[in-house]
Amino acid sequence: MKPITTADPQSRSADLLADNVARLRELFPEAFTEGKIDFDVLKQLLGSEVDEREEKYGLNWHGKRLARRLALTPSTGTLRPAPEDSLEWSTTQNLMIEGDNLEVLKLLQKSYSGRVKMIFIDPPYNTGKDFVYPDDFRDSIENYKRLTGQTDGAGRALTSNPETSGRFHTDWLNMMFPRLKLARNLLREDGVLFISIDSTEVANLRLLCSDVFGEECFVIDLIWRKRDGAPNDRTIGSVHDHILVYGKTVSSTSSRSMAEDNLNLMPRTEKADAEYQVFKEPSGPDPKGPFRKIDTTLYFPRTYSV
């Protein structure tokens, strides 16, 4: 499937802003006056839950309001079948969509909102060259065509995101924020999101996800070893990346168990089991299960006295 632009209003993606207002009206009808939200009344209804302090804990950056607005702006695109690029078109149960991921996420809202069990994303790590952004930060079908070379760009300058840029982290956050908000909308109540990232933006991503999901929905930071030996491109080369896991619901047991289920762990082989021993004592086996002996001198430096 490929996204294309259309002028047909029936083909627009879900209006998330209108949905939010409708839900608010259903919960707090008295907070609406002449069709508009009266925030003073709304704050009274929410009571002590409203944080009115001037200084608040959280992650802020230039462009955050615009990025939030982008997530709420409906897409004017639609999906075009591409059977010529597909295999077993009439029988397959799988779907691949090629296009700008922000527009695609918006288009999926109508059919899949609140229905997705698990999402795994591998966003740009913001290494300085792994993604390109437009200087005025507009995400749209037209922008996607410019980025992919489908149009001449109408004279707009496109650039990579070098570390020397004064907006190095800002541009990356503006790119990620609306996509994470839309991804969360797609998850069902016990759904989970896995995000692969490296040390460059893991701290910002953790704060960003806490903003979108709530920090109480954090499940785990998985560490996976991506190479055997450290690279020599920096003083201390990294051999691992991170996979942040967040649940849709508030630290629910279902989200944590689903995260574990989605790991699809394989059982240990007989050879691996042979390396483990059962701790024997009068009271019986160790309640924590089998353990493996290791040589701690491999992990701790030796010390000498003179």
TrEMBL record:
Protein name: site-specific DNA-methyltransferase (adenine-specific)
Family of the protein in this entry: Belongs to the N(4)/N(6)-methyltransferase family.
Record has Nucleotide-binding as a keyword: no
EC code(s) of this entry: 2.1.1.72
Upper classification of the organism: Bacteria, Pseudomonadati, Planctomycetota, Planctomycetia, Gemmatales
Catalytic activities: a 2'-deoxyadenosine in DNA + S-adenosyl-L-methionine = an N(6)-methyl-2'-deoxyadenosine in DNA + S-adenosyl-L-homocysteine + H(+)
S-adenosyl-L-methionine recorded as keyword: yes
Domain DNA methylase N-4/N-6 span(s) in chain numbering: 116-252
Pfam families per UniProt: N6_N4_Mtase
Keyword entries, A-Z: Methyltransferase, S-adenosyl-L-methionine, Transferase
